[in-house]
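ok so i was messing around last nite and threw this chain in just to see what happens. nothing serious, just curious
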Amino acid sequence: MEQYLLYLTSIAVILFIGLFIALVSKKIKISNILLLLITGIALSNVTFYGEKLFVFPTVFLTSLGVLALVMVVFDASSRFRWKTIDVYTIKALKLAFIFLLLNLILLSIAATFIFDIKNVFLVMIFSSIMVATSPDVVFSMLNHAKNKTNKAVELLRIESIVNTPLTVLLPFIILGLMQTLNVETVIFSKLLEQLKPFLMQFIVGIGTGVLVGLIVAKAMRKAYSETLSPLALLTAALLTYIIAENLGGNGVLAVTVMGLLFGNLYIKQKEQLYNFSTILGNSLIILVFILIGIGIEMPLQDYTFWWKAGILFVIYLLIRYISVELSTFLGLKEKLNFKEKLFMSLNIPKGIAVAVVAFTLATKVADIPQLSIILNLIIAFMLFSLVISTIVSKFENWFLDGNEINRNRFV
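result:
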């Protein structure tokens, strides 16, 4: 069989399996992302005459990863509205930044000691990625509509919108800093010299995002085509990333800025364009989650890794609870009860944003071999968080029905 037919056959099989899993997960009310990830890990161990059955070229995986990354970044950033910033948004922002700060400090220290990771940039990449929360993964499994309007659920929903751009932006900023800054250099003049290309990533990235965003907004302000406008939007997002990267800027930052402009400027038929980007993004979920399980080799037989990862995850949950407590202490007029705080602490599943970042980072392992341990930890935490969140959703009434008076009160 021709090589291209082998690749097409593998993709067709993966999509078929993914569709079947989506139907099964909907039937049994379990996150399809959890099942897709487990399926990918299982398929990675399928062999035929001693050779792995599902193998894809790095160029294909990189291209797919960038496409998914661009769509996720654009979709998340474009949904952020400056005019909708209210007390709840500020609370969610406060929680997201407290969680980020504690992760970068406490989780980085814990990961360094437990896994003996010497590179501070690598543990910071891991810690920044773990800020992500995607409660929409399990909210669809909530049995009662009244629970979906609980203030704890609403805070989680807004937090997920806020921290998604952080999740996909910070790791690549840290990676860029890691590649341009030699930590062994202590001479101040050399330090400034190495920081120049890093700062240029910000300047060029923001400039590209603003330029393309304004052009797109002006072009789509009045004209709309049901067939051409969605394609033009996808092309513009990809071009923003490509132009920024080729000019030495940060492509993720450029797409983020473009998305912010798109979301906050008048665009004709904007909701229809959102539907297109969401549908396209969802269509990539099956491929990304199964391929990430196939592409990243997990140490399934290394029990030492798993118990260490388990200890680190428990520390991570404690950090999350401390973050929730601090954000409550620092200004929440409408206090959360203990069960709601526990719900917010345990319901932190990792969704498409984390998968796409891990998928993209996996293509850089050849250049940075130490990334492999970080990728293994990311996948382990994805599995742990999805399992915990699935269990929590099964006991939603215990967590969310305890505060009858304040359930539907929003500030």
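not much to say yet. The longest helix spans residues 188-220.
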